[in-house]
Amino acid sequence: MELFYNSKIDENTTNFAICDEDLKHITRVMRKRKGDIIKFTNGKGYGFESQIERIEKKKIHFEIKKLFKTANSNNLHIGISLLKSPTRFEFFLEKATEIGIKEITPIVSKNTLKKGVNMLRSTNKIISAMKQSIKYYMPKLNELELFETFCNNSDEKYKFISTCQDIKKIPVSNLTKIQESTVVLIGPEGDFNKDEVDYAVKNDFEPLSLGNNRLRSETAAIVVSSAFSSFK
Known about the structure:
Blueprint: E1 3-5, E2 15-18, H1 21-29, E3 37-41, E4 46-55, E5 60-69, E6 76-81, H2 86-99, E7 103-108, H3 119-132, E8 140-141, E9 145-146, H4 147-153, E10 158-162, E11 170-171, E12 182-186, H5 194-202, E13 206-209, H6 217-229
Parallel strand pairs: 1-3, 6-7, 6-12, 7-8, 7-9, 10-12, 10-13, 11-13
Antiparallel strand pairs: 2-5, 3-4, 4-5
Helix pairs in contact: 2-3, 2-6
């Protein structure tokens, strides 16, 4: 089964058309014809079983035959420092989407080497991973934020900051027990500095341990995503 994405359809839509790159895939790769059923999502939990009404040279027309809504148990928000390698950041986006995550915010901290993010490319990576893993909820990708701004604005019930510093920390396994909204901060290459960790703690973030191994930032974020999604 293949899943396609269309942000413009919702529970009130009865008919729609597409004219993007999915058209070629549906007609030339999948070889679908009039009357065939294609499954779409709008990334908001809805699935749409849509029948091909008409195929034109540059457009396919659909009629929605069945609508369904999936449950969403994703309550995790990760604030992750931009990484020096865009490929590694995109790898995290893909894997977190596959595992299941509610929200992602790229942040800039003192040790962040890269200061900008390609939002369009990053969003497309998320969409691709959502379709590939047959997910009906698309993680929200926020605009870039400064570390301090992120700490000040976070309003989740549970808040954590992952750090390698030698301080008292709770184990990542504790995340498997949490059902409510949670945010976890993941630092850059070189970790957060002491002032940043102290600042986060003053804003009600608890230091979090990911174990004894030293992990790359994207690996740490994937470990957190996996732990939070366990038994959900």
